[in-house]
Fold ABC transmembrane type-1 domain-containing protein.
Amino acid sequence: RRTPPRPRLRAARIRAAATVNGEFGGLGRRRLDAGEFIGRLRNVLPGGSWWRLEDEDAGGAGRADASGATAASALSRMWALVANDRWVIFAGFASLICAALAEIAIPHLLAASIFSAQNGGAVFYRNAKLLVVLCMISGVFSGVRSCCFGIANMILVKRMREMLFDSILSQDIAFFDEETVGDLTSRLGSDCQQVSRVIGNDLNLISRNLLQGIGALIYLLILSWPLGLCTMLTCGTLSTIMLVHGRYQKKASKFAQEFTASANNVAQEAISLVRTVRVYGTEKQEFKRYAKWLDKLYDVSFRQTMAYGGWSLSLNYLYHSTQLCVGCCCFDWRNSNHEWEVHC
């Protein structure tokens, strides 16, 4: 008695099928869904249309592409801003070299100390003392390096904002008619803060990793040429992926800066004219304008995050693959005495 009538069940099934597939049943529709899934999957994969940023905003894209600069010209301009305090940069690079050399030598002495610990004696104590000294040198010079690059970073941001503000004030009146207040304040705020990480973070890490990589590669080639070639192959692959990832992040950062400036402009206009907004009752319209730019900023930031996730995946995969190759090159099975012999 409680079971619904059969015709109602059939009607419910028909409505559910029509809601999900547009029509009920059919193998051809399933194949079409599979084709659409494959097409969407191709768009999401690297190189697909989902990663393209040209369609975000025509005006913002034009301004972003027009403001592009090479790395050499950008570094030369930044050097002109910190040239009067060049001693800070020189002290930072000197500390960087000393810390990198100490960190290159630490693994060798650590391995020597471990293998000589079984026998003890003067060799073990000598290696242990050298290891302690190198660790102290690495720690001290790493701290000095970070301090010097941090001071240079603050000097760069201070003088960049001063120069930009002076340049804005010296412009003609027609310039302020074309540019909005939100764009200008965004350049003084978020854009200068974005550039501030170049010396304090990017240049510091790039110089340190480059010096340590070259030193470790030379050490590996002297120690074992197969191991060195395997490492060179991995580094070459990572460099190619990093080049593609860096170009995409550079382009996405330009769009993010443009969208941030547009959102700040909308917010500043609405807040400065809040009385007019209240009189005409356009709060929802202003909120929609602001939310539109935030949605575009979210889309670009989401793609940046996904690109960084792909880069991290490639880095970890190649890193652990190199570790596996190191294990194959470092250990050799001797059939004569059935023992593992360590070559490195």
In short: The chain has two domains: 79-223, 225-343. The first strand starts at residue 331 and ends at 334.
